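To whoever picks this up:

The nightly regression suite flagged Aminotransferase class I/II-fold pyridoxal phosphate-dependent enzyme as changed. Nothing in the input moved, so I suspect the structure step. Input below, exactly as stored in the fixture:
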Amino acid sequence: MKKINEALQWQEATKLVQIGNHSDDQTGAVSTPIYLSTTYAHPELGKSTGYDYTRTANPTRQVVEQALAQLENGRCGFAVSSGMSAIQLVFELFPCGSRFLVSRDLYGGSYRYFDALTKKGFGYFTYFDTLDELEKAIGSETSAVFLETPTNPLMNELDIAKAAQLAKKHDALLIVDNTFLTPILQKPLTLGADIVVHSATKFLGGHNDLLAGAVITASDELGEKLAFALNTTGAVLSPFDSWLLIRGLKTLALRVTQQEKNARKLVSYLKQEALIKEVFYPERGSMISIKLISADQIPSFLSALELFTFAESLGGVESLVTYPTTQTHADIPKDLRESYGLTDDLLRLSIGIEAADDLIEDIQQALEKSAAR
Ligand SMILES: *Cc1c(COP(=O)(O)O)cnc(C)c1O
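Regenerated output under the current build:
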């Protein structure tokens, strides 16, 4: 654990691979030991080894929490049981009746949570599409701005530094969901955000085998508040899942770089493909949305795919295709969805690390089959 902190001069790829190495001085284990013990003996009354009970602190979880904090250039990191529990943990910071401004085009589960909070009278959520709209809506009564960039699934980028300036001016916190780009491509805290959240189920874990979330704070003060809230509410990541996340993070730089390379190749093909109406790509990362010529083609296109898997989620080594209308964004009312461009002819692609040419070929043959029907 110490070594990682001392090695700030290392490049990111190096730091990632070294997560957890030298974390156990007693045995020299290169792979972080999984500490399953939920409770820890006290040497004597009033003394502690630093570990008392696993909800409060666990040695395996601490390794990944320190790594997450460092990766996002933050002060404190928290590893929790899912992306949604990461978002829920952050909203523990605010009192009832708080006002929030939220980017409109975002993960359907976040919308569903904010809608549920609104319905039970916890807070007021107002949605914005652009930073001009944010600037008009923000005021001294705003507690926090929550945004996802690039937006999901329409891939518009929002300027985090500018949003941070607006939030600071009005004493509001800026919370950024950094799931899509990961700290390899975007570091919101460095751009002025106060809190970053992740669905670590996606790129950070990277293998479609782990449900996890992360929260990273820019300040110790916010970190202390969240540590209290997490110990109180308890959705911590289990020791085994913490180890899986460590294992995933070791290859994050490698994966994200290859996924982006593949995505760029795919985008060049998609943009000149006559059977695709529109391509949405923010020029970085490996998330692409496409609109087919007609929504009627969607069922046959999906069943014709041989390599891409039709499944929700994203960011793993396997390429996936998602239909937001019935999957990730089904909880956003149809009229609302369509009003900002999330129409039922849109598909979202998460590009993995397969050979790019195989991915292109798969899309091409599926498009041809669905068009011929
Ligand atoms: C998946 C996702 C979430 C929710 O994370 P879970 O790990 O599924 O709970 C939140 N935000 C974004 C952008 C996501 O893609």
